[in-house]
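thought: fold this chain, then report.
action: predict
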Amino acid sequence: MSETTPSYAAEILERSRQDSGLEESEFGKTSYDMYCVPTEIYEKYKDDVLRLSLSYSKWVASEDGGVLLERVNQLSDAELAEQIDIDEDTVRRIRCMAEWDLPMEVLRNAAEFKRRRRRELPAGSPNRDIRDEPS
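observation:
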């Protein structure tokens, strides 16, 4: 009788379990258990998690009358968990699920916008019109 070879996904799950230091009984045995939360929990916290965890850039006026691109770093999973009063692992799972749920068009449009803007004018150009750029 030959032993069955585990799938690549099963190998990755086992490596992740070993890296986490958790016992097999405490670690999710399927990818759903590892990365997902119940729908009711996801729907309840999804908007807060996305709003507070995504990093983005915004334009701000400088003292000399110009504009600067300022990076806004949002909360870490631990900080977010403390703020909305759920555990850090649940926050991480909700964030991953919410990022998967972003429509491909959103990601494609953002990439296209950035590519076009880089080609048109460099970031420090005084002629750059920022009125049509997302904040």
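thought: worth noting. Residues 7-36 form one domain.
final: tokens above.
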